[in-house]
Amino acid sequence: MKKIFAITFLFLLKITFLSGQVSKLELKKAHDHPMQYYISLPDSWSPGKKWPVVIALEDAGKQFKKNAERFISARKDLPFIIVVPFITTNGQQGQKDPNIYPYTKAVWDTIDKISICKFDIDGLQSIARDVKANFSGSDKIFITGFEAGTHLLWSLIFQHPELLYAAAPVAGNYRSRCVENNSFSADASRIQLPVKNFTGSDDNDFGVKGTYYYQYLEAKNLAIAHGYKNISETEVDGKGHVPLPDHVLDYFNKVWKNVK
What we know:
By secondary structure, this protein is an alpha/beta fold. It has helices at 2-19, 64-75, 105-114, 116-135, 150-159, 213-225, 245-259; strands spanning 26-29, 36-40, 51-57, 81-85, 137-146, 164-170, 195-200, 231-236.
């Protein structure tokens, strides 16, 4: 009887502890990888069921915390666990700056040795496993990225579609980063993987009439050439060069309802 009481007490203690994490923005490190990340659970979170996970990739501005706060604000009452990792594939500026990254010299030495691409791709997979194990995260993830954050997003789409429920590049770059070796997945999940590109109608750089829109078209054409058949795009009226978290989360929520 005492043993049953002790187990029950520990279980309730764990629930109480985890419930205290709801809505808070916390900085964590993947348990088997040096990558660190911000995480926030939705207000309605509780253990015992699967919760959809959104990984939001920051652009070259590298304002990781601000990006997390932006998506938390846009989440409202949607059920998403928000994750913003400290990625390194979003431009060279600011790398190794301790005011931007929480990584030690030893971690940067490792990154230099294995490449920023391997560090980021392996790190995202490690984080996804952690969130699934520790916070009842979903089996797959939703992923979005803004501008330079989409270098990593496209590499996940092209190399690991089996990890994704859906992807949403926003005003995205594509320069073949992390897929230079032509390593495209042949997994069947790629065929119907939902990929929706978002742009603002007033974005003069990455919008439909923008200077760099061709980069999205290059990525889109590569996807189609490699068997991806669920590629679409939407132009948000009146928006400029901004991440569009509200529209992205609304799109992911529609996909999640079909997954369930």
